[in-house]
Amino acid sequence: MSNSITAPQxxxxxxxxxxxxxxxxxxxxxxxxxDVQPSDTPAAILRSRKGIIISGGPASVYEPGSPDIDPELLxxxxxxxxxxxxxxxxxxxLGGKVQxxxxxxxxxxxxxxxAPDALWNGVxxxxxxxxxxxxxxSVPEGFxxxxxxxxxxxxxxxxxxxxxxxxxxxxxxxxxxxxxRILENFVFDVCKAVKDWDVSQRVPVIExxxxxxxxxxxxxxxxxxxxxxxxxxxLCLRALGPERVYGTYVxxxxxxxxxxxxxxxxxxxxxAAHFLVDEAEREFLSVLEGIFDPEQKRLAIGExxxxxxxxxxxxxxxxxxxxxxxxGTIYPDTIESGGTAKADLIKTHHNRVxxxxxxxxxGRIIEPxxxxxxxxxxxxxxxxxxxxxxxxxxxxxxxxxxIRCLCSEEEAALGATDDGFLLPVRSVGVQGxxxxxxxxxxxxxxxxxxxxxxxxxxxxxxxxxxxxxxALCGSKxxxxxxxxxxxxxxxxxxxxxxxxxxxxxxxxAEIGFEDMVWQFPVILLPLGTAQASESVVLRPINxxxxxxxxxxLMAPEHLEQLTRKLLALPAVAAVFYDLTNKPPGTIEWx
Length: 590
Ligand code: XMP
Prior knowledge:
Layout: E1 10-14, H1 20-29, E2 34-38, E3 51-54, E4 80-83, H2 85-93, E5 97-99, E6 105-113, E7 125-132, E8 135-138, E9 144-149, E10 156-159, E11 164-167, H3 179-190, H4 202-214, E12 218-223, H5 227-240, E13 245-251, H6 259-270, E14 274-279, H7 281-288, H8 294-315, E15 323-326, H9 331-334, H10 341-351, H11 354-361, E16 365-366, H12 374-383, H13 388-391, E17 412-413, E18 415-416, E19 421-431, E20 434-443, H14 449-462, E21 466-475, E22 483-484, H15 491-510, E23 522-525, E24 527-528, E25 534-538, E26 541-542, E27 550-551, H16 556-567, E28 572-578
Parallel strand pairs: 1-2, 1-3, 3-4, 4-11, 12-13, 12-15, 13-14, 15-16, 20-21, 25-28
Antiparallel strand pairs: 5-8, 6-7, 6-9, 9-10, 10-11, 17-22, 18-19, 19-20, 21-28, 22-24, 23-25, 26-27
Helix pairs in contact: 4-5, 5-12, 7-8
Xanthosine-5'-monophosphate binds at residues 298, 340, 342-343, 346, 395, 397-399, 519, 546, 582, 586-588.
């Protein structure tokens, strides 16, 4: 939003923390325009600001080359709020003492205000979020300590007459209950900022930026059917008109049932004039033939995607000077900690397309959403008329159903153990800092899902041969009569998974479960009997960002109904419920 209509009243100085943009966003949510600038921006440039916030960051003030500020800022009477590293930097510059921490403190703590000033209006206690290694050991002359926690004496400090404030914790994150109030106190009571930022301004500002970047050129997108690329596409459509914006959707044959029709329908509703579907199912299935290993599958899909993109770029003449590329990159995609390592891998593949790289290198690219978080992208989407049923979709992995359709190179028997049956199919897990690839343990007779969820961690901790525990919900034969069959990835198996997935999705939408969970993968295992050789695993989870996840439990009567519907598919021998949190199990099985 650098070309904004409004000049920022508050500037957040970036010292490398992962929450820097979140701070600016919180201030904008208060109705005050705020931007982010490099930490060493000269005080002279910031003269017109009503307030400065120095962000947190991973460095220590004593490390050579650690991010610094212009010390003049602390003398000019512009209010300054230091957060975490910013607080330590303030103490360091003004003669206080910062203590190096060995282990640090990460998580929830409880704050008590001991000497209230303007920052604490309406706050006496709060749950807060700490994430730091170093702490301030003694405050600079003229400062006083204003709040403490159970483990830290100097959780906050201030010199109100000099308009300087420091907080060891993070007011910008939701875990700090009084965080919004504290920021509000700083922005309005201390800085005397006035409301000038209306979120409804966002869309016209972005559209203006798109027009400026595109000039007289047209824009094309590879749309995935995901929220980000669709919202970015729609913004371009509004800014430039439907004749100047093209979208190509690649049907890999690895998508959920009716997905292509759903996406086509959405784009029609959005007013797209040039929406192309590239039918690539045969190409993808043929490169996947004979591949059993999960990582090999991913790699083959990524490489095939690159080839398809190159073909489209060449045949549609998108590489000529009249065209620029639009992408749905959002803020978390641009920082290292954002997204998942695997998602990054897939993206890397896309970016390697020589044609796309050339467009990026020559600046022929528009990414209208790079300053926004996912929930802001949804809000923007809502403002520009993208249907809600589309915006609230669950995340879906790039390689699609290929990584939910487990394959087996050979036939194998189940192993009976004291704890349950060892399923001879392996799935991916995260244990410690590395990924594991191990068997799943199936429990046949289980009192309740809750009971299994409780004992699952004990089982995965104790048994080094498993990373996952599933409970049997229903089957056409007892587990001891079943085995794993040799099963490659075929269209027939993908179609079965598509059917099972569609049954689950529809039922889950009907009972309102779909809206209560973050994601609900359905997995196919080549496990069963000669008559019905496949099993379905239900994997509903809750999560904030996909990095960790908890199992979401379905009501027993609903689960019974759903199991019956799935067992009505002739090829399905059994239905299981995955009761493994992440860690130790990943959300997807592969
Ligand atoms: P895991 O299985 O690692 O998944 O716990 C975390 C989140 O990432 C999604 N996921 C992917 N997304 N390409 C993607 O675009 C991939 O290769 C991929 N693998 C996993 C997964 O659906 C979950 O939301």
